[in-house]
Amino acid sequence: MNAQAPIKLIDGKAAAARVLAEVSAEVRQMKAAGLAPGLAVVLVGQDPASQVYVRNKVLRAEECGIRSLEHKLPADTAEAELLQLIHTLNGDDSVNGILVQLPLPGHIDESRVLQAVSPLKDVDGFHAENVGGLSQGREVLTPCTPAGCLRLLEDTCGDLAGKHAVVIGRSNIVGKPMAALLLKAHCTVTVVHSKSANLKDLCRQADIVVAAVGRPRLVDAEWIKPGAVVIDVGINRIEEDGRSKLVGDVDFDSALAHAAAITPVPGGVGPMTIAFLMKNTLAAARLQHPAQPNLAKLPEAPCRSIS
Ligand SMILES: Nc1nc(=O)c2c([nH]1)NC[C@@H]1CN(c3ccc(C(=O)N[C@@H](CCC(=O)O)C(=O)O)cc3)C=[N+]21
């Protein structure tokens, strides 16, 4: 009766493990060529969720042989002091990647801080130089979450050319760079957001839906065209049945009825974000050593954000 393909769960943990295995192999080659890649993670304040992410990043880095340095600063750190730390890290040759965990406390100007990170060490791809480069389709350091989503989509759908992708959300961290990457992959891209008219109708036209709005379970089966592929970027902590739960921007159980394939939360996009942070750290190390003959002999970067 139903000719549709069986529902497929997109396993972000398994995909991330594959990416991390590639990273580990590359780290070994880099070390053989005399370079031990290092990542600095800067956390300002005590936000418990951020602390969990930072801990996960440090663990994954260690697993694939990347040195990670954690800088924890108190919530009342002055902007000038944070900028000074970034300048020090910019000038430290043992640091190849710098990640400043967001959000920053309200008294700190986020864009000034992101602009202070050297574009060659900007493993988040948030510096204007890299944002502009991505928009021009140049090979630059690219934000980790959208890069991870693109890999999941390519693994699931193969060639993305000509597909209609609807990105829900227009943040600088996910929505906008996701749209740029999908365009680069030859999709027809629609970006919708909280002020869009006919949000649901637009979404229902999509072959690919990427939900990144931060609204728990906003997207249900009615938003999804039968056979569409759904990537859920949302990580929302909610209270339900007297306990705390992690849910996405997609109502998973409902969307499952229409989707050909869908990412779970947790275990979907989150682990891929961290895996691509590691990949970007290696890509950054390569950018910083363009003339090093031994590194130049390394195989082409399989990092999609670069190659
Ligand atoms: N400059 C900056 N860059 C970021 O990339 C950045 C940031 N700031 N601030 C916070 C958000 C959030 N983020 C996550 C990364 C991984 C998981 C992750 O691994 N999640 C797992 C476990 C989740 C859990 O159990 O808590 C999963 O979804 O399966 C989650 C969230 C990166 N962010």
From TrEMBL:
GO terms for molecular function: methenyltetrahydrofolate cyclohydrolase activity; methylenetetrahydrofolate dehydrogenase (NADP+) activity. Pathway: One-carbon metabolism; tetrahydrofolate interconversion. One of its GO terms (biological process) is L-histidine biosynthetic process. Residues 10-124 form the Tetrahydrofolate dehydrogenase/cyclohydrolase catalytic domain. InterPro entries: Aminoacid_DH-like_N_sf, NAD(P)-bd_dom_sf, THF_DH/CycHdrlase, THF_DH/CycHdrlase_cat_dom, THF_DH/CycHdrlase_CS, THF_DH/CycHdrlase_NAD-bd_dom. Its EC number is 1.5.1.5, 3.5.4.9. Transmembrane segments: none annotated. It catalyses: (6R)-5,10-methylene-5,6,7,8-tetrahydrofolate + NADP(+) = (6R)-5,10-methenyltetrahydrofolate + NADPH; (6R)-5,10-methenyltetrahydrofolate + H2O = (6R)-10-formyltetrahydrofolate + H(+). GO terms for cellular component: cytosol. The keyword Hydrolase applies. NADP(+) binds at G169, R170, S171, I235. Pfam families: THF_DHG_CYH (PF00763), THF_DHG_CYH_C (PF02882). Residues 143-288 form the Tetrahydrofolate dehydrogenase/cyclohydrolase NAD(P)-binding domain. The keyword NADP applies. Keywords: Amino-acid biosynthesis, Histidine biosynthesis, Hydrolase, Methionine biosynthesis, Multifunctional enzyme, NADP, One-carbon metabolism, Oxidoreductase, Purine biosynthesis. Homodimer. Catalyzes the oxidation of 5,10-methylenetetrahydrofolate to 5,10-methenyltetrahydrofolate and then the hydrolysis of 5,10-methenyltetrahydrofolate to 10-formyltetrahydrofolate. Belongs to the tetrahydrofolate dehydrogenase/cyclohydrolase family. This is Bifunctional protein FolD. It comes from Metapseudomonas resinovorans NBRC 106553.
